[in-house]
Amino acid sequence: MQLIKPNTKIDFVGKRKLAFILSGLIILAGILSLVVKGGPEYGVDFAGGTVVQVKFESDADPAGIKDALKPLNLGSMTVQTFGDAGGEFLIKTDLSSEKLEGVSKKILDTLEGTFGQGKVDIRRTEMVGPQVGKDLRQKGMMAIGWAMLAILAYITVRFEFRFAIGAIIALVHDVTITLGAFSLFGREIDLPIIAAFLAIIGYSLNDTIIVYDRIRENLAKYNKEAFDVVVNRSINETLSRTLLTSGTTLIVVLALFILGGGVINNFAFAMLVGVLIGTYSSVFVASPVLLIWEQRKAAKAAAAQ
Fold it and tell me: What is the pLDDT of residues 178-187, one digit of tens each?
């Protein structure tokens, strides 16, 4: 199936400066948001604390729930709506306790005293100690770092080092933008999001490898053409496949994001941003970086003569 007509000659390489400016502005916006907010907003998995999911049969709002729980002295506490159905809330506190059932019972009794007996249902209660959260956060970052190093080694062996540099820059670009999007939209980073980041890395790399493989084939096939012409030809030749793969993946991810419910909403959001940015970077970041590397290498060789 061909979405794009054969022999398409869109000048992707010629638009690389515009693409770099766009990427730079998006990354800058994300970094500024992270700086202003003092870093990513970590979930209970990484920050430690207690989260209680509550379902109300009667009308309730975050402010009323927070006022009702003040006598419990739960420390720094936030209450936010959960999901789209209404009546469900997440109660989060930075305090942690080993007696989760006791915490749930106290919250349940206090809320029923305000909203009525049988009008409140505790759906789940989770607790992570601060040291455990810190350890999970460090291991999550290490998992992403080791994945990047393994990819660098694989592409260096599978292709060449210049290809590996382009792929790694594209992957760092994708993860940075996704992280920035989480900060800009006020979403939490937890263990499922680390899994999403690793999935984004794999998805983006797959797209990049397809383009790189075609570039390598065309370098041998059209060895008399300029390098930028070969790169542009290769991107155009794989464009139909890229759009088909990304389009079908986006349909699934979008369905998860809209219909999947609150539990996986952040994960689906990460995948939605990651698939879009990963497709974009395969065309406008990974390949142009390869071209810039080759141009600088040629310039140095010419200057040495």
Answer: 999 999 998 8
